[in-house]
Design goal:
11 strands, 38% strand, Jelly Rolls, mainly beta, four-stranded antiparallel β-sheet
């Protein structure tokens, strides 16, 4: 191990040890100091058709990681479209200090976003078989960072051991309010 890598390793151990009392292990993230290339996927999808299915093949590498599964709504630079989509998604929620003013200057709160009914299925694919290891239906998605033109909504975080996986996202009901808004289904490791 070269001296730079050893210093980095010592530094990361120190940071981890300093954060342990604060429950850092509870956060859904993994830190990789050595720049390992990790698999991920970005797939354009449509929420306009009930029963639409989108499939991603994923080869998880040599280590287990917690993968994030989320939708990224790409609304562009149009301020009216940004406000319309963020209001539909419920990104302005009462209680967290977020409000917006409507066209008449009235202060508004949006308590929850629109229902986006999805089913996430993760199957482990072997040489001769496929085993479903995770199935869950989702109705409400939560905010996951982003900015005004890039609105991610988290579906879930799942720890995957090294293997080949088939990830299936099914639209359980059409979401017509978001038709025309470009959406990507993203699978990645947070922070990578």
């Amino acid at each position: 191990m070269n001296s730079n890598a050893l210093r980095l390793c010592r530094k990361s151990s120190f940071v981890f040890m300093m954060l342990m009392p604060f429950g850092i292990g509870a956060f859904p993230m993994n830190i990789n100091w050595f720049g390992e290339s990790l698999p991920g996927a970005k797939l354009p999808i449509s929420l306009a058709e009930q029963g639409a299915v989108f499939v991603v093949d994923l080869d998880a590498k040599a280590n287990a990681y917690t993968y994030s599964f989320y939708l990224r709504f790409l609304v562009g630079a149009d301020k009216q479209e940004q406000q319309r989509v963020s209001t539909i998604l419920g990104l302005k929620e009462r209680g967290n200090g977020s409000t917006y003013k409507d066209d008449h200057g009235e202060l508004c709160y949006v308590r929850t976003g629109i229902s986006i009914p999805l089913r996430l299925t993760i199957s482990r694919v072997g040489e001769n078989d496929e085993t479903i290891m995770y199935v869950r239906d989702f109705d409400k998605l939560w905010g996951y960072g982003g900015n005004n033109s890039n609105l991610p909504r988290a579906i879930d975080f799942v720890r995957l051991e090294p293997a080949h996986y088939k990830i299936r996202l099914e639209v359980l009901a059409a979401v017509n309010e978001l038709s025309g808004v470009p959406v990507n289904f993203i699978v990645d490791v947070p922070g990578k």
